[in-house]
Amino acid sequence: MKKIKYLPVILLLLSISISAQEDPGKHEGYKVEPKELADGTLYGGDIDTTQQVLKISDIFANLEAYQNKKVVVEGTLSEVCQEMGCWTIFTDGTNEIRAMTLHKYFLPKDLQSGLKVVVEGEFETKEITEEQAKHFAEESKNPKVKPEDIKGPQKMYRIKASGIKVLK
Question: How far apart are CA 162 and CA 43, in angstroms?
Answer without folding.
Answer: 9
